[in-house]
Every structure is written in structure tokens, then in C-alpha cells.
DNA sequence: CTGACGTATCAGTGGATAATGATATGACGA
DNA sequence: TCGTCATATCATTATCCACTGATACGTCAG
């Protein structure tokens, strides 16, 4: 094993970081709950709060995060702001994860490295 | 808005947690680097260490995590242990993430909620 | 204009967790 | 058997980050 492999991967380091960041963005129950609410419908912040049971600042913070990441889009309507998924690929990625959970990623609940 | 929506989502709470856990599992640069090494080939721990530049205990810890989660499988061979992706769906999920990054999730680098 | 409502922002804090160093375990060769 | 190599485990530490409460901003109704 030369050090070549190492150097190659270090070059791809930024790509890995970006991937990781995307997955971490999706790796939060609050954000997933918000996305889940938006899968069905375009929603105002209050509606998301109602669907998820999360606090309003929490929802707003996370929506901003999702917006910055490009996963949702927003649209002002009077004093309401309505959010929706930016792209159906977002929902597709979540479905792909569900398929993985159903098939091979069984026992994920048992992994004790991080909390369920 | 009734409380019905809230109750429904609370019922699905465990599913959300599980999704989140899977994404968090993939949301770590070290684990992604490890998976990246395994995409090409079955690898021993040392080979993964070489590919990624990570420390050996770090790699072992994360491989155990990935194994528990069912994302990789292992096979003993003398004093070596060879790991591989458990399923091609794992690689597919990562590719789906890359597609999202290329198309709609632009600006993820600018999201300041968490570090890049 | 004023009060109520919807949303956004921000600092503080507690909890989670990734990486490391030390060490243990197990297998091979001499 | 002894030393070496490959891997695993574990406690510690330092960091990161999600949530909350307080508050600000903007919009509409009366």
C-alpha cells in the first residue's frame, strides 16, 4: 500500500465533507419531522409546528437551515410563509433510506455508538 | 388544526428516530470515508486505514458501528478481518445523495447551522 | 394607530459523540 | 513458546450542536 490512496482521498476530502454535511442535515429527528410534514403539503410555519409538536423557534431555525441547504423552498403570503420541498429528489432520498432500513439496515436500533 | 396531526406523527416517532439514526450514521466524514474505501473493494482494517488516513482505533470503532447498523459485513481471514458493503443499496443511497448535492442541494456549504 | 398574530433571530446551556491513547485479545511465524 | 502483527475495546476529553426563552420584525384587522 503506497500513500497514493491516502492522497487521493485527501483530495476528495471536500466531497466527503459535503456528503457528510447533507446526511447530518437529514440526521436530525426535528428536521426529518419537518420534511415529513412538507412531503404531503406545502405548509406554513404554524402548520409545521402543529404537525410536529416542535416549538416555533425550533421549527423556524431548522427551516432556515433546510432552506440554506436548498432542501426546501419558501414563498411569502401575507404574514404567512409557506414552505415546500425543493425537489422530489428529497423525498426520494428519504424513501431510499426507508428501503435500506427495511432490508439491510436492520439492527440499526442496536447500534450503541449513538443514541436512537 | 386539530391535535390529530400531532398524535399521528407521534405514533410515527420511532420511524423518524430510526431514519434519523441511519442518516446520522452516514453523516460522519470518517464513516463516509470508510464506506468510500469499501465501495471499490473488500478491505482489511489496515487497508481502510491506509485509504482513509484515519487512526486504527477510529476505523475499528466506526466499522463496528457500521457493522451493528448492518451497513457492512465482515469476514475473518486468519488474523485479518475483511469488510465489505452489506448491500449495493448502501452505495446507491450515497449516489442518490451525490445527485441531490449536484442538483438542488447547492449552497449546502453556506448553511452555517453546523460545520462543513 | 394599535394590538394581535406569524415568523425570525440569537445567546446560553445541556447533552451527545467523535477522536485519541492505552491496552487487551487473538493469530501467525520462528 | 515468544514476539509480532492485526484487530478490538474502553475511558477520557474536547467539540459540536439542538433546544429553549427572550425578543425583534413585519403584516394584517379593527
TrEMBL record, chains A, B:
<dbReference type="Pfam" id="PF01022">
    <property type="entry name" value="HTH_5"/>
</dbReference>
<keyword id="KW-0804">Transcription</keyword>
<dbReference type="InterPro" id="IPR011991">
    <property type="entry name" value="ArsR-like_HTH"/>
</dbReference>
<keyword id="KW-0805">Transcription regulation</keyword>
<feature type="domain" description="HTH arsR-type">
    <location>
        <begin position="11"/>
        <end position="105"/>
    </location>
</feature>
<dbReference type="InterPro" id="IPR036390">
    <property type="entry name" value="WH_DNA-bd_sf"/>
</dbReference>
<keyword id="KW-0238">DNA-binding</keyword>
<protein>
    <submittedName>
        <fullName>HTH-type transcriptional regulator CmtR</fullName>
    </submittedName>
</protein>
<dbReference type="InterPro" id="IPR036388">
    <property type="entry name" value="WH-like_DNA-bd_sf"/>
</dbReference>
<dbReference type="InterPro" id="IPR001845">
    <property type="entry name" value="HTH_ArsR_DNA-bd_dom"/>
</dbReference>
<dbReference type="GO" id="GO:0003700">
    <property type="term" value="F:DNA-binding transcription factor activity"/>
</dbReference>
<dbReference type="GO" id="GO:0003677">
    <property type="term" value="F:DNA binding"/>
</dbReference>
<dbReference type="InterPro" id="IPR051011">
    <property type="entry name" value="Metal_resp_trans_reg"/>
</dbReference>
